[in-house]
Design a protein that fits this description.
Chain lengths: ~425, ~425
Amino acid sequence: MNFIQIQEALEKKKGNVAVRGWIYRIRKLKDKIFIVLRDSSEIIQCVIKNEEMIKVADKLLMESSLEIEGEIYSEPRAPTKYEIDVKKLIVVHASEDFPINKDQSPEFLADNRHLWLRSRKMTSILKIRSTVLEAMREHWRKKGFYEYHSPMFMGMQAEGGSTLFKVDYYGKPVYLSQTWQLHAEPAIFALEKIFTIQPAFRAEKSKTSRHLSELWMAEMEAAWEGFEYLQDDAEEMIKHVVKKVLADNKDELKILERDISKLEPVLKKKFPRMTYDDSLKILAKHDMKLEWGKDLRTFEEDKLSELYDTPIIITKYPKVVKAFYMREDPKNSKVVLGFDVIAPEHYGEIVGASERETDIKKLKKNLEEQGEDPKKYEFYFDTRRYGSVPHGGYGAGVERIISWICGLDNIKDAIAFPRTMTRWTP
Amino acid sequence: MNFIQIQEALEKKKGNVAVRGWIYRIRKLKDKIFIVLRDSSEIIQCVIKNEEMIKVADKLLMESSLEIEGEIYSEPRAPTKYEIDVKKLIVVHASEDFPINKDQSPEFLADNRHLWLRSRKMTSILKIRSTVLEAMREHWRKKGFYEYHSPMFMGMQAEGGSTLFKVDYYGKPVYLSQTWQLHAEPAIFALEKIFTIQPAFRAEKSKTSRHLSELWMAEMEAAWEGFEYLQDDAEEMIKHVVKKVLADNKDELKILERDISKLEPVLKKKFPRMTYDDSLKILAKHDMKLEWGKDLRTFEEDKLSELYDTPIIITKYPKVVKAFYMREDPKNSKVVLGFDVIAPEHYGEIVGASERETDIKKLKKNLEEQGEDPKKYEFYFDTRRYGSVPHGGYGAGVERIISWICGLDNIKDAIAFPRTMTRWTP
């Protein structure tokens, strides 16, 4: 048999087709059996009328793998409007009783994640994830960026020791990377504009629906570029990702019951840009008082996001709440030339960005103020000693962006096998 | 100034141009100063004749960052055949004395890896690496594969415990992934055809020029496909990668002094395919006797690779030397339906592949024979319980392939910051 995907069979609309996949639903009547078959592309109803075949199919359970040949024709009552009259049926593997049905607890689904991936929900999310990854790369490659990988094993820490995972490295302690920052900046002196999509590790003790212990970060760094360029690039990147998902994953968004009218403004409107100071004023108008110098918390970000139907860009945060390598605003030494992008609909921070500080004295002072030992950062300071240039970059949380685009309740569903404080299997 | 890349300036050939970059070489004469400027695209000679500018340039050291405006014209004696007569010079940053010059030890270069990345050698390799990554993805995406990520944190081990890195995971031991295998197979029941390029970790105690503790693996897994398909796909993938590098990275291969006549046969010829048994016969003819059942060692792979000018595919290895999940040959229970791809020119194994065993009893037996506890693999066996299908896949070592294509002496140069038993900084 010359197999085609179910999607392709549906497009053929008539004639003989051969498809293969798994039983999504099976309904056994006296004189016929209806099987809804799924493959990675779609589902299709198949009807078995032949007596011998009915005997075979009668024993089959959900998730059994089949090869089917038959005639396809229009059938408005079928779930995808076409049906196959089965002429030939081969049981590739008769499934045992599949443990997942409709009324399982989230904990059971997590324990059986390796099986739950087959659900139409998870399959749709994983397809959108695949699109998101490619869209991000497309965006940067079009602009001449090189793909560059930083190491996962770090002899030292970059963003605060409390959230680092320690590895037994041939008997010595090393740490898992939280960001590519320290090892990305040296490479802009070779490649100028670089990006990556790679894992990052954060020993977050929080159990919120927004945090993973193992996540994927899309990061970029560019020589000769600054504050304005970074805002433009982050906005363009996000727009390109949303555009591509809307174009390529209509069916998946439908399966996820995502209201795409909430995504469409992202393409049409310029993202609002406001300073941290502005954001405090807006919050005050909504009876949320935040002391200057405190970082925006989840419920403040959420309040701001409610006021707009696109992501918003909040700039010039207080220096004290941001990473040591963010550049001090030359006009105001209390804030940095950095910004966060906050997603709509309460999806929180999806991008963190800044121009980078090039003044070694300021870098050392920032580290000391954060309780770090600047001596461990000598190799990093070298990037400011030998032909330093203005530069900057940002990191985007891949799972955060997928959660928002898919409209997920929990970030855990944005990745196949989520790892959190309480979950590291299967 | 409206800056363009040096490559673009060279293509312009005449007229006024503005470029920026770093001093690659500087030669100070009495009445003029020659600066060879480099950016990520190329190098160009710039000549300074103006008295005031000479005073400024006279103090400059290698690697200083500059903005330059001037007239470009043909100059056959210049390294890239054109020269800029500098009209305007801005020193962005006057470099300190750059620690790397021509006669440094490999150890010194490794300690200063963050600066050595700027060398024309490392910059060229990193550009080729960027091409290789994209070419691999292009190959699989064109065939309808989805990009899919497996977790780095593993509650259990996949390929032998002795080479696992242990992580302190909120007080519990977990391990870093050596392959995506166990978490990839469950996903083919959702997406059918998947690939990834992601880090893998191996606590290799060897100090050879072919091993890294942190490497990147390009892996694919496909439902409904078997032994022949996998050989074809691996060959196509490798051909596509070599083709794209030859097309896009001519200049970089030249800088690396790579003899591209050694790469060209890869595109023109079908890769020889031989069984392990055949390979033993060939080795015997060259006075290399290997007992049946032993794995090919480096020097045997090297001998075989000398006999061909393309990669070779060696199939049906003894079961005892291969991973537990490789499918037993139905015609010979002593060998597996798997293969390795061996690169030419002594670059060793670049791909390891197989159809997967679907018989749970055999999987358990294989695990037991390797001293593993099958109980830990229950979630994996589930992929054979609920609609099992024939499937297979392979893993390609990204750094191995880059080493071979670039003709490198050591795999460490195929990655920006190599991690080995003796090296985890900077």
